[in-house]
Design brief:
elongated, alpha/beta, Rossmann fold
Length: about 375
């Protein structure tokens, strides 16, 4: 009897993992779905808790390493070093997938990866905000990219503009980020929330933005833009509090048509996406390398208003004058004018929205992602 072929072993190194809902975490989960049944997989990541935790998701072992401190957005974990070393030696992965930016795990990967293992670097973003940190770790990141067998970029825009990826174009493969269509289905409970939102905003133009309240998301700019418009416009900003929260609260103080929702459950989030007339995505820096929330808003057939971000994938996800309107970066007046134009021209609003939904379904669903990722693994 012929012996069953042994499955290749994958070690995936992520920042966090589900139920965290950040961009990296969603893609780490999409990779697990793509390789399920065809490869053996273990995942190592951080947890916000101080204690380690190991669990299983199906047959995949998930090792969450306790975080002792966070310095300049970088998690520090004593157990991550020990467990990474142990996994590289005992599990002996055939393929290592590391999500960047993350200087700490970059250092550990370089230190412990075996010579025979194939290395895939999943490049989510350059280090943009931490200028000093970027300079300190630049050489180390270049060493990792030298070692990499393949580098995944989320858009062609990012490859051309990144000081890192532009040097390794021969290693780069574009696999756009994806959304999980099944997670966006509208059930009866979600539908009732949609009806409530629409009833409360009858004869209004509902504008929705989604994301953490941090500077690069640019929510201060859309608040300022709404303040230049009349009271037809109702703005709902959904997302976890962060560094920008106090400024957003200050700017929106006394404005009855600006609503800072904060973190919302998944059904409520879907309801706002499905209810809105315009999806506001005002990110302003390359920290926003792609924009999964942008793709989710477009999935519901909503035209997006974005800023031009040189080198970011945002303007690859939403195409100017095709799926939404794009205005000069950080230009509040231009953003307000774009919102006004869409409000006053329903034909354009619906045309762009229809195109937006079609673009997401053609390019950015998890099934497309899975096919592309499995093709890359087969090439290795």
């Amino acid at each position: 009897m012929e012996k069953e072929t042994e499955k290749k072993r994958i070690l995936q190194i992520s920042n966090y993992y589900f139920p965290e809902l950040g961009g990296i975490e969603k893609i780490a989960q999409a990779i697990s779905k793509a390789v399920e049944g065809q490869y053996e997989e273990k995942i190592i990541c951080f947890t916000h808790d101080k204690q380690d935790k190991t669990e299983y998701i199906g047959s995949t072992e998930l090792i969450r390493c306790g975080t002792k401190a966070v310095v300049d957005s970088q998690q520090l974990s004593f157990s991550m070093k020990k467990k990474m070393k142990g996994l590289m030696e005992s599990y002996d992965p055939d393929i290592v997938i590391i999500h960047l930016p993350n200087p700490f795990t970059t250092h550990l990967t370089l230190k412990y990866i075996s010579d025979r293992a194939k290395l895939i670097v999943y490049w989510h973003s350059d280090i943009v905000k931490q200028v000093l940190g970027e300079r300190l770790f630049r050489n180390m990141v270049f060493k990792l990219l030298d070692r990499a067998d393949r580098i995944i970029a989320t858009s062609p825009n990012y490859i051309d503009d990144s000081i890192y990826l532009s040097r390794y174009k021969n290693k780069c493969t574009v696999i756009p980020n994806c959304i999980e269509e099944n997670n966006l289905n509208i059930d009866d409970e979600t539908q009732s929330i949609i009806e409530r939102i629409k009833t409360e905003n009858a004869d209004k133009i509902i504008c929705v933005g989604v994301g953490r309240q941090v500077p690069y998301k640019g929510f201060e700019y859309v608040i300022r833009a709404i303040k230049e418009l009349d009271d037809r416009f109702e703005l709902y900003l959904v997302g976890r509090k962060g560094e920008s929260t106090s400024e957003m609260e200050r700017l929106s103080s006394g404005m009855d048509n600006i609503h800072l929702i904060g973190e919302a459950d998944h059904k409520t989030l879907k309801a706002y996406l499905a209810s809105c007339d315009i999806f506001c995505f005002p990110s302003i820096t390359k920290n926003e390398a792609f924009g999964i929330a942008l793709a989710e808003g477009m999935y519901f057939g909503k035209p997006a208003v974005t800023f031009t971000i040189h080198g970011s994938g945002v303007n690859y996800v939403s195409i100017a004058d095709e799926t939404g309107l794009e205005v000069p970066n950080a230009d509040v007046k231009a953003y307000a004018d774009a919102l006004r134009k869409l409000a006053e021209d329903p034909d354009t609003r619906h045309r762009l929205g229809d195109n937006a939904g079609r673009r997401v379904r053609d390019l950015f669903l998890s099934e497309h992602f899975g096919e592309r990722f499995r093709e890359l693994l087969a090439e290795l």
